């Protein structure tokens, strides 16, 4: 099998049900999900300690779901059977609720980082946010599968929660943004408000 087809030499690419310019916002959106999936794969390689086996297993599941999301975004066919399900959104919410209880109380914005694996999760979080912005832009002009947007919105929160848990398990304190006001007020940083300020 050849890896090159030459069909994209004029700046267009195939999607499910047609062809688009490679600069189209739909292509940018699912391209960002592909980039994110690569970073998730890299992050898994940083979770070799047995204390992270639960998280590594979840990331493997998320990689498959990101492929589902990308496929759903690449479909311009009206009758395409979308793969991203509400159950996947619920799974992320349940894991976040668990990790918010495990991590210490959070009152202020924190700096991305701490341990190496936590830093990778923050990179995943910010790529997810970019993908979300692109999906929202696409939604303004084209039809999308709405569960994809919900899933990606939850996923960035999930990465934030996991980054904090990873630092906690490694006994590394999150570094608070030194000029931050108290913003979470007893919510344990549930959700990723610091990325949506």
UniProtKB/TrEMBL annotation:
<keyword id="KW-0067">ATP-binding</keyword>
<keyword id="KW-0169">Cobalamin biosynthesis</keyword>
<dbReference type="InterPro" id="IPR036451">
    <property type="entry name" value="CblAdoTrfase-like_sf"/>
</dbReference>
<keyword id="KW-0547">Nucleotide-binding</keyword>
<comment type="pathway">
    <text>Cofactor biosynthesis; adenosylcobalamin biosynthesis; adenosylcobalamin from cob(II)yrinate a,c-diamide: step 2/7.</text>
</comment>
<comment type="subunit">
    <text>Homotrimer.</text>
</comment>
<dbReference type="Pfam" id="PF01923">
    <property type="entry name" value="Cob_adeno_trans"/>
</dbReference>
<feature type="domain" description="Cobalamin adenosyltransferase-like">
    <location>
        <begin position="3"/>
        <end position="166"/>
    </location>
</feature>
<keyword id="KW-0808">Transferase</keyword>
<dbReference type="GO" id="GO:0009236">
    <property type="term" value="P:cobalamin biosynthetic process"/>
</dbReference>
<dbReference type="InterPro" id="IPR016030">
    <property type="entry name" value="CblAdoTrfase-like"/>
</dbReference>
<dbReference type="GO" id="GO:0005524">
    <property type="term" value="F:ATP binding"/>
</dbReference>
<dbReference type="GO" id="GO:0008817">
    <property type="term" value="F:corrinoid adenosyltransferase activity"/>
</dbReference>
<comment type="similarity">
    <text>Belongs to the Cob(I)alamin adenosyltransferase family.</text>
</comment>
<dbReference type="InterPro" id="IPR029499">
    <property type="entry name" value="PduO-typ"/>
</dbReference>
<protein>
    <recommendedName>
        <fullName>Corrinoid adenosyltransferase</fullName>
        <ecNumber>2.5.1.17</ecNumber>
    </recommendedName>
</protein>
